[in-house]
């Protein structure tokens, strides 16, 4: 899209007295409209440098004002479009953009609104299908549990029960991972410090060591159930592979950083990103003793990204693994 163009040159002014000077400036707007500014100086006035300088100064100021208005008219809707694109990941059901401004900007805003509608409809359809699948899968699992009770061998019955529990956990976590129900939860003020202290007490009651270093002074605007699940998955992962978990907190005006570290063996660097893939489990965790379905980290990252944040894994220099969770604070 072409911006305003300007050209100026002295030229004769038809219909004006002979002599003197005529100054013509033309500005072409983005839609092709031509704005013309002209000024005529008589021979007597043309000989006065001060009058000529003032005329040119007024002319230049007028051109600058018109150009700024035109640029603002174009860039204002583009700024709104960029803000909407940034916030789309946090709230797919946010209000549509106002389709205003130049023709090109209106077309871009209309295409953005259409994309948002299609994404929202796709996610809603997928959620309904997965909810139906979850309901239908409960029936055969319930039948298997009832039939398990008829098995006389207690050892075999216990093995079947463990397999059914594992199947139930895998089905539930798989559906939750695909459905990403955290996005449907309303945002509100969340006391993350109190939430972490509650998790610490819950894990300590079950015999697991969880320590907290640092503090969070201000509440965080987010989805409380989703955030609790994200933090629970990360602490459970640290305890499962490291025996204990240490939660380190950092609070700034722009973001909240939660580091959950353990004293485990860590992971090869090439597996740090693959750990977030569905059902991926490192060589050290492929056993019944460690448990898990390989979905906890993926679900935690989905929740972090739904809040506009990020979750990464890092190997600690002294050994162990660090889950680095960053959650940006909303500025408006």
Fold and architecture overview:
There is one protein chain. Helices cover 48% and strands 19% of the residues. It is α+β, with helices and mostly antiparallel strands and 332 residues long. The protein has 3 domains: 5-88, no CATH class; 91-179, Helix Hairpins (Orthogonal Bundle); 185-328, Heat Shock Protein 90, CATH 3.30.565.10. A 5-stranded mixed β-sheet has the order 5-7-8-10-9. The longest helix is centred in the middle third of the chain and has 46 residues, at 103-148.
Supply the number of structural domains. Answer: 3
Q: Could you give the distance between the termini? A: 31 Å
Give the low-confidence spans. Answer: 1-13, 285-289
What's the arrangement of strands in the largest beta sheet?
Answer: 5-7-8-10-9
Helix-strand makeup class: alpha+beta
The CATH homologous superfamily of the largest domain: Histidine kinase-like ATPase, C-terminal domain
Radius of gyration: 32 Å
Q: What's the CATH C level of the largest domain?
A: Alpha Beta
Q: What's the β-strand tally?
A: 10
In one word, what is the shape? elongated
Tally of separate helices: 7
Strand content: 15-25%
Q: State the helicity in percent bands.
A: 40-55%
According to CATH, the fold-level topology of the largest domain is: Heat Shock Protein 90
What is the residue-mean pLDDT, rounded to a whole number?
78
CATH architectural category of the largest domain: 2-Layer Sandwich
Order of helices and strands: EEEHHHHEHEEHEEHEE
User: Quick one: biggest sheet?
Assistant: 5 strands, mixed
